[in-house]
Design a protein that fits this description.
The complex is a heterodimer. Chain A is of the alpha/beta class. Chain A has one domain: Spore Coat Polysaccharide Biosynthesis Protein SpsA, Chain A (Alpha-Beta Complex). In chain A, about 45% of the residues lie in helices and about 15% in strands. In chain A, strands 3-2-1-4-6-5-7 form a seven-stranded mixed beta sheet, sandwiched between helices. In chain A, strand 2, helix 2 and strand 3 form a beta-alpha-beta unit. Chain A is globular and about 50 Å long. Chain B has two domains: about 50 residues; about 55 residues. Classes of the chains: A alpha/beta, B mainly alpha. Chains A and B meet through strand 3 and helix 3 of A and helix 4 of B.
């Protein structure tokens, strides 16, 4: 079985080398691809020097377009499983094999690594958790399903979901919206408890100023994703 | 009245010449320019026969013909801006796809070179 880790990367100079090292050590069965979304710092040079396999997007696409580039790559190169994995040190590669087992055993289309099942490890900050709570409730109302960590960026998908996402995937803030989209299509989304760390470096793609816009945009996007059915 | 009509006609004609010139120089797409050319011709007709405007306003129950022009202009502008939004969305989708293709293509060629 061919398995791919997709690491979207924008200005992650402090953490990208360690992220790849973590994958090589703790998930050696996986191939990986870093998708450099036009970092403005020297991330790309650092990757080159360290011999890290990198897709170089010639213009900045944002997180959705970067991850989707990874999915297109995965589809073209015949991967059976792809997992999105943050380049900022928040995620641990030791969970990846368990996620594959869960994906296979449950016949799931997506496995989300959730911080909030066992409530261990870094739990995100107070305000963010309120936002996540809002998404929990909204997903429950829209799809009837309980997803504890819809904003998690650690998500594994099977081949058919990869093919679907390679054709359509939200451009920005894709996580909660694409979960609703999958659930609306009666795909199976399950969660596995994981612990996450605080980011090692870089800044979150969602700043305080943008958070109101983020909440509104994602809420509307989720409603529309449900309407598309 | 006649003076104003001539001035407006002149403005519209100059505008038409500019648009046609831009199309010839490939600065703008005929596809998108067509709406503007149509607008200029409508303007010229209304300018030549101002009676049409009054009759139309009467028909719609608008007391002052100029108000009808304002309303029509605003609606038209909204439609045009909206269609631009749609165009920009489509373009950004295409740029995204091309960007992804280019990145993967570069990677594939690079990896092949390495194997040689």
């Amino acid at each position: 079985m061919k398995k791919l880790v997709i690491i979207p990367c924008y200005n992650e100079r402090e953490s990208i080398v360690n992220t790849v090292k973590d994958i090589k050590e703790h998930a050696p069965e996986f191939d990986y691809i870093v998708v450099n979304d036009c970092s403005t710092d020297d991330t790309l040079e650092i990757c080159k020097k360290a011999g890290i396999h990198t897709l170089k997007l010639p213009v900045n696409l944002g997180i959705g377009g970067a991850v989707q580039a990874g999915y297109v790559y995965g589809v073209r190169h015949g991967y059976d499983v792809a997992v999105q994995f943050d380049g900022d040190g928040q995620h641990s590669a030791k969970y990846l094999e368990d996620m594959v087992s869960a994906l296979e055993k449950e016949g799931a289309d997506m496995v989300i690594g959730s911080r909030f099942i066992n409530k261990e490890g870094f739990q995100s900050s107070g305000l963010r958790r309120i936002g996540i709570k809002h998404f929990n409730v909204l997903i429950k109302i829209l799809t009837g399903k309980r997803i504890t960590d819809p904003t998690s960026g650690m998500r594994m998908i099977n081949r058919s979901t990869m093919e679907f996402f390679s054709k359509e995937y939200p451009k920005d803030y894709p996580e909660p919206e694409s979960v609703v989209r999958l659930l609306s299509l009666k795909k199976k989304v399950i969660e596995l408890p994981v612990q996450m760390n605080e980011r090692q470096g870089g800044v979150s793609s969602i700043s305080a100023m943008k958070s109101v816009y983020y909440m509104i945009k994602v809420t509307v996007a989720m409603l529309i994703a449900r309407l598309r059915g | 009245m006649l003076k104003l009509q001539i001035v407006i006609a002149a403005i519209l004609l100059i505008w038409l010449i500019v648009i046609v010139g831009n199309i010839k120089k490939k600065k703008i797409d005929l596809r998108y320019a067509l709406a503007w050319i149509a607008l200029i011709f409508v303007g010229l007709i209304l300018d030549a026969f101002p009676g049409i405007l009054g009759a139309l306003a009467d028909l719609l129950g608008i007391e002052i013909p100029s108000n009808m022009i304002f309303m029509a202009a605003i609606i038209l502008l909204l439609v045009m801006v909206y269609s631009l939004t749609a165009t920009v969305s489509r373009l950004s989708d295409r740029v995204k796809k091309l960007t992804q293709e280019l990145a993967i293509l570069r990677d594939d060629t690079f990896e092949q070179d390495k194997e040689k």
